[in-house]
Write a structure and sequence with these properties.
18 strands, single chain, eight-stranded parallel β-sheet
């Protein structure tokens, strides 16, 4: 198949200001009624996404997988998991979305594969010292009889990072034992992944999200872990930049783009991944994890823009994803930030408060310079669901000894139709995760009929975002105002066109609005005297 034609020059930089919708296929829509979301379900709901007004859709892994970690344990990148459909259906979905003006991004997981991947199965059969084992990190154990792991690296999911096989060697897995880490010093690993990129670009995808993008390269000596050691033995190693420069050359041949999952506290090192010959964008976790507090929100915005400026890359803004507590729940708690280490069962939540804040945060996010990622169900205002312990499937829960509630609460199948079985998800049988009582109160069809609903707010905001030249990528100027108010002006890059002002009040009481000529959109009613109430945001004509 010949390379896909690059986009027209006028739209070559679409990704700099795009709104990209994240689909978790198992939970989006069920087309065949078996309890699991699938590609047929997504295809049937493409008109919904077009009406919502998104520019692209990012699919979390839809590949063949035993689902030990929600599909991030990939057994074959060139095969769609039968639970979701077929490769032909994926190609048709990509084409159908493109006809509606929606681009497609897929997910690549370079750090590891499934223990059912042909490479790993061959490595187990081949034995110690074989070429097959050099594709992974196999080592003899320590101790008198090799009974101890080769090093003491901590796991991303708690528990051990090494598993011993029958012949006595151990293999490395930073996540679960079902996800063996690849050896990125081996040329075959690099060649295979570049071929996988070409495979999907040739099928029409517009971009690739890179999972755990700072983890694949390892210190070849595999030394014990020392806190603060520089360079880190397996995070953000310099070798990664050569890998991503090579990937960029592949993407450029097809007009494709990358977004990296890069969790790094060092702004300068984060920016290195966004140099012009590496990744186009990377997720902004500083903003995602930030509490709903005006000083910290402004600092997160300023820091984000500052760290992107030296490399000329656009920022990305996201409030929630398939790993993170849903926004309306997080913002309704005493601690409105996010940290994996603090997740716990039974955290008190004020959903009415969280919903007001989530509505305001939506307008704040959509008014910031750069691109926005919207996780499925956020436009419906879905809360985090409490999953009964006996129904939890996330390995984070089990590897924590049952103390971590895991990530299933943000992955519950979507409600589409009020009053329908399983809220119209499409199943004839109960979905793979249980929907909580009252879930159809959030149903898309019910909200579509209410312009004041969360869905109505998102549809209106996205339509305005497309119509207003000042929004998307471009300059931001902070405006003076009373303590606690976040107000900034967006102007059209290069001049021309009308300005737009976004004002957000995360503070405790109403505040005066900045000077303006008209109110374009508000996340909630203004006060009787025209002031901006607490936990409310507004877009104004400057």
């Amino acid at each position: 198949m010949p390379p896909a034609a690059p986009p027209p020059p006028s739209r070559r930089d679409w990704w700099r200001s795009a709104v990209i919708y994240q689909v978790y296929p198992r939970s989006f829509a069920d087309g065949d009624g078996d309890g699991t979301g699938d590609l047929a379900g997504v295809r049937a709901r493409l008109p919904y996404l077009a009406e919502l007004g998104v520019d692209a859709v990012w699919f979390t892994p839809w590949y063949l997988s035993p689902l030990a970690d929600g599909g991030y344990d990939v057994a074959d990148y060139r095969t769609i998991d039968p639970a979701f459909g077929t490769l032909a259906e994926a190609e048709a979905l990509i084409a159908d979305a493109r006809e509606l003006g929606i681009r497609t991004l897929v997910d690549i997981v370079p750090n590891h594969v499934s223990d059912q991947h042909p490479w790993f199965r061959a490595s187990l059969a081949a034995g110690p010292g074989s070429p097959e084992r050099k594709l992974f990190h196999f080592r003899p154990g320590r101790g008198a009889h090799g009974e101890l792991p080769p090093n003491d690296w901590p796991s991303q999911f708690a528990g051990r990072t090494w598993t011993r096989v029958e012949d006595g060697e151990w293999y490395l897995h930073l996540f679960t034992p079902q996800q063996p880490d690849l050896n990125w010093a081996h040329p075959a690993v690099r060649e295979e992944h570049e071929d996988v990129l070409r495979f999907w670009f040739e099928r029409g995808v517009a971009g690739v999200r890179i999972d755990s993008a700072a983890l694949p390269a390892k210190d070849p000596e595999l030394p014990d872990f020392t806190e603060g050691r520089d360079p880190h033995p397996y995070v953000d190693r310099d070798e990664l930049h050569e890998i991503y420069r090579s990937w960029r050359a592949v993407a450029d041949a097809y007009g494709g783009v990358f977004v990296g999952e890069v969790w790094l506290p060092d702004a300068e090192r984060f920016a290195r991944y966004l140099r012009p010959d590496e990744l186009h964008t990377a997720f902004n976790f500083t903003f995602l994890a930030c509490p709903w507090e005006p000083v910290r929100l402004r600092a997160a915005i300023d820091d984000t823009l500052a760290e992107h400026a030296p490399v000329g890359a656009p920022a990305t803004w996201v409030l929630c994803n398939h790993d993170v507590t849903r926004t309306v729940t997080r913002y309704g708690r005493a601690d409105t930030g996010f940290d994996f280490a603090t997740k716990a069962f039974g955290t008190p939540t004020d959903l009415a408060l969280g919903t007001r804040r989530a509505r305001a945060a939506a307008l704040l996010t959509l008014a910031l310079p750069g691109s926005v990622y919207l996780y499925q169900g956020e436009e419906l205002g879905l809360p985090e669901a409490d999953i009964p312990p006996e129904r939890v499937q996330d390995p984070m829960h089990f590897r924590s000894g049952g103390t971590d509630p895991g990530r299933d609460g943000c992955r519950v199948p979507l409600p589409w139709t009020a009053g329908a079985p399983y809220a119209g998800f499409g199943s004839r049988t109960e979905p793979w995760l249980p929907q909580p009582e009252g879930w159809d109160g959030y149903a898309a069809d019910r909200q579509a009929a209410d312009p004041d609903s969360m869905l109505g707010l998102y549809r209106t905001a996205l339509a305005l975002r497309r119509a207003e030249p000042a929004l998307g990528d471009g300059p931001l100027t902070w405006l003076p105002g009373p303590a606690g108010l976040l107000a900034f002006r967006r102007t059209v890059a290069g001049g021309g066109g009308a300005d737009l002002v976004c004002a957000v009040n995360p503070g405790p009481g109403p505040v005066p609005l900045p000077p303006h000529s008209a109110v374009l959109l508000a996340s909630g009613p203004l006060a009787a005297d025209g002031r901006l109430p607490s936990d409310t945001a507004v877009w104004l004509r400057g």
